[in-house]
Amino acid sequence: MNQSNCINGLFNLKLILFNIFLFILDCLFVPQTNDTVFFDKFFPNVPELQISIALFFIVIVLVILSRILFEFWNKFISDVFKIRFITHQEALSIVLIMLLFVWG
Questions:
Q1: Digit-coded pLDDT (tens) for 22-49
Q2: Which pLDDT does position 97 carry in this prediction?
Q3: 3-state helix, strand, coil in the chain (%, to 5)
Q4: Which neighbouring-strand residues pair with 10?
Q5: C-alpha R_g of the chain
Q6: C-alpha torsion angle, residues 101, 74, 60, 58 (rounded to 10)
């Protein structure tokens, strides 16, 4: 196995930082009471901006997840199972299909 194709500490650090980012987003958007979430305190009079920011966070999470899947697939899964590498678009497609099963 080529050393550059190994999962290394930098990949694991990125994964840890992404999990911290998800935790922060979870704290922002999980309801504190029956009516509000912590994120409601930001721009309380501009719901369009709140929705835009929330959608932006969703897109950011999807892009990061697809990048993590791309690296994990091409550095680990393709080597262990002797299958081909995937592209960024294929990684994003896999993430979106997996979300259909989680959210659907």
A1: 999 988 888 877 777 888 888 888 989 9
A2: 94
A3: 75, 0, 25
A4: none
A5: 17
A6: 0
Q: Which two tokens stand for residue 44?
A: 């309380």
Distance CA 102, CA 65 (A): 14
Q: Mean per-residue pLDDT for 1-16? A: 82
Q: Average the pLDDT over 45-63 and give the result.
A: 93
Per-residue HEC secondary structure of the chain comes to: CCHHHCCCHHHHHHHHHHHHHHHHHHHHHCECCCCCEHHHHCCCCCHHHHHHHHHHHHHHHHHHHHHHHHHHHHHHHHHHCCCCCCCHHHHHHHHHHHHHHHHC
This prediction has a pTM of 0.83
> Which residues have CB under 8 Å from 77's CB, separation 6+?
83
Q: What is the number of other CB atoms lying within 10 angstroms of the CB of residue 66?
A: 20
